[in-house]
Design brief:
The complex is a heterodimer of chains A (107) and B (118). Helices cover 0% and strands 50% of the residues of chain A. Chain A is built from no helices and 11 strands. Chain A has strands at 4-7, 10-13, 19-25, 33-38, 45-49, 53-54, 62-67, 70-75, 84-90, 97-98, 102-106. In chain A, β7 (62-67) and β8 form a beta hairpin. In chain A, the strands form 2 sheets. In chain A, strands 2, 4, 5, 6, 9, 10 and 11 form a 7-stranded mixed sheet that branches. In chain A, strands 1-3-8-7 form a 4-stranded antiparallel sheet, with no helix packed on it. Chain B is mainly beta and 118 residues long. Chain B contains no helices and 11 strands. In chain B, β5 and β6 (59-61) form a beta hairpin. The chains are: A mainly beta (107), B mainly beta (118).
């Protein structure tokens, strides 16, 4: 199985601050990487797919990037509605695997 | 409008078989490239992909659970089912179904909580 190592496990940031979350894949997955946001009691919502493509309706302050097998999600200006748990997902090969999650809070 | 909704027993005893249904609308599973997956999440933990079935009826399973899983769909392509045999307390989780028309899992159901307890 492909392992996705996500960091940090938790993050506290101020409004308008830049936030970055990373996932390291255990092998080459190309651009088969997606990012999700999950709020308490809700299902995950797709933010980014194909490593860098913004999903429909997602604010442009969210962006994704790739450097080799390391993938990053950046929130350019943290907003009050952004807290939640963020997960990465590799869709390169089954079994598809998720990162362990990053809990984002407002400071 | 794409919607998916999971249904299940809520609670069942260890060693029993868990049967889940994913009912969806707004898309067709007969569309080339369409896939519906099952994913679960124990409380406070990350997500685990379990199984998938595609438009052509091909099935995919997580090897860690493959011997216990069966995924299927109905002939009208509006429902997908998952059976998990010999459930254990470790199978207690919220179970989601989600679709993949290309980008992975763009629409998810609300999830159904399943508790395994004697």
């Amino acid at each position: 199985d492909i392992q996705m190592t996500q960091s940090p496990a938790s993050l506290s940031a101020s409004l308008e601050e830049i936030v970055t979350i990373t996932c390291q894949a255990s092998q080459d997955i190309g651009n088969w990487l997606a990012w999700y946001q999950q709020k308490p009691g809700k299902s995950p919502q797709l933010l980014i797919y194909g490593a860098t493509s913004l999903a429909d309706g997602v604010p442009s302050r969210f962006s994704g990037s790739r450097s080799g097998t390391q993938y990053s999600l950046k929130i350019s200006r943290l907003q009050v509605e952004d807290p939640g748990i963020y997960y990465c997902l590799q869709g390169y090969s089954a079994p598809f695997t998720f990162g362990s999650g990053t809990k984002l809070e407002i400071k | 409008q794409v919607t998916l909704k999971e249904s299940g027993p809520g609670m069942l005893q260890p060693s029993k078989t868990l049967s889940l249904t994913c009912s969806f609308s707004g898309f067709s599973l007969s569309t080339s490239g369409m896939v519906v997956s099952w994913i679960r999440q124990p409380s406070g933990k990350s997500l685990e992909w379990l199984a998938a079935i595609d438009w052509d009826g091909d099935k995919y399973y997580n090897p860690s659970l493959k011997s216990r899983l069966t995924v299927s769909k109905d002939t009208s392509n509006t429902q997908v089912f998952l059976k998990i045999t010999s459930v254990d307390i470790a199978d207690t989780a919220t179970y989601y179904c989600a679709r993949s028309p290309g980008p992975p899992f763009d629409y998810w159901g609300q999830g159904v909580m399943v508790t395994v307890s004697s």
